[in-house]
Design goal:
By secondary structure, this protein is mainly α. The chain is 47% helix and 0% strand. α2 packs antiparallel against α3 and α6 runs antiparallel to α7. The longest helix is centred in the middle third of the chain and has 40 residues.
Length: 288
């Protein structure tokens, strides 16, 4: 967390995403210091592009898609480079909803002034075409149906925001189930105690209930459900399938929501009867 402390005090609500960002930063640091033996020259850069994508996607989804963080937290992440502002700006545009990196759309980085093959839609490729960008390791980030489920084919292509939100919902479900079970058990014990008191065995029955509570009461795994995972990455097939089936419609909706937030802020600058270029809309314009 040293990186966060250096940049000043984080805004309220940053604690919700701080653990995941900290793990991603540690992961990036380990990959940078990792040996490059047996790898291609460009392959050593894959984790940097991929973790940058995953970290930026996490912040982007938490703000625009799930509304789990405030604008202050989002701006803090952008200003302190905890998320790639240039990459997020591209995600807001149609056709770039799943762009892996701004590197792959820079025509100066590829021969003949083209872009990476990972930007070619699936339906435009041949049946046996192998897609793998040599600089980022992307397996295909073009928008539209039939796209790559996990654009990197590893844990760095998972949508961590969706996983965290699903775990929070599961944790809330478990807590609600425990409260319901505890209330039901309390009602049953009260009914049994009343019946025992009526029959004259109330004290003995209450002592037996206390012994039962001490032996097996309140266990976190008593309902057969294990503890929640500590890692931000997926650990089950259900979590690995989150946001990966065909995210074109979901990504487009998130991009539209992202654009509408800024469009609403920008439209307020123009008063009624004024034009974006300034001046009166009815004023005569010079001819050229």
């Amino acid at each position: 967390m040293s990186r966060f402390v250096r940049k000043g005090k984080p805004p309220t609500g940053f604690d919700y995403i701080a653990p995941t960002l900290s793990m991603l930063e540690n992961e990036l640091r380990d990959k940078v210091s990792e040996g490059h033996e047996g790898k291609r020259k460009t392959e050593s850069m894959w984790p940097i592009h991929q973790i940058n994508w995953q970290r930026s996607r996490y912040v982007y989804d938490m703000y625009f898609k799930y509304n789990k963080i405030s604008k202050e937290v989002y701006d803090y992440c952008i200003q302190n480079k905890l998320a790639d502002a240039a990459l997020i700006a591209k995600w807001k545009k149609p056709g770039y909803e799943r762009l892996c990196s701004t590197y792959v759309i820079n025509t100066k980085n590829y021969k003949f002034g083209t872009v990476s093959i990972c930007r070619v839609p699936k339906h435009a490729l041949g049946p046996d075409t192998v897609v793998e960008d040599p600089f980022t390791g992307c397996l295909g980030c073009a928008s539209g149906p039939g796209g790559q489920r996990n654009i990197f084919g590893n844990k760095y292509g998972q949508y961590l925001a969706a996983i965290q939100v699903a775990r929070d919902e599961e944790r809330g479900r478990r807590d609600a189930a425990k409260l319901t079970k505890a209330a039901k058990d309390a009602e049953e014990r009260a009914a049994e105690a009343a019946a025992s008191a009526a029959s004259g065995g109330g004290q003995k029955r209450a002592a037996e209930d206390e012994d039962t509570d001490e032996e097996g009461g309140g266990g976190s795994d008593s309902d057969g459900e294990g503890p929640m995972p500590a890692t931000p990455w997926a650990v089950t097939d259900a979590e690995r399938a989150m946001e990966t089936a065909d995210t074109s419609e979901a990504d487009q909706a998130a991009a539209q929501a992202a654009g509408s937030k800024y469009a609403a802020a920008g439209s307020s600058k123009y008063a009624a009867g004024a034009t974006p270029g300034g001046g009166d809309s009815d004023a005569k314009r010079p001819r050229y």
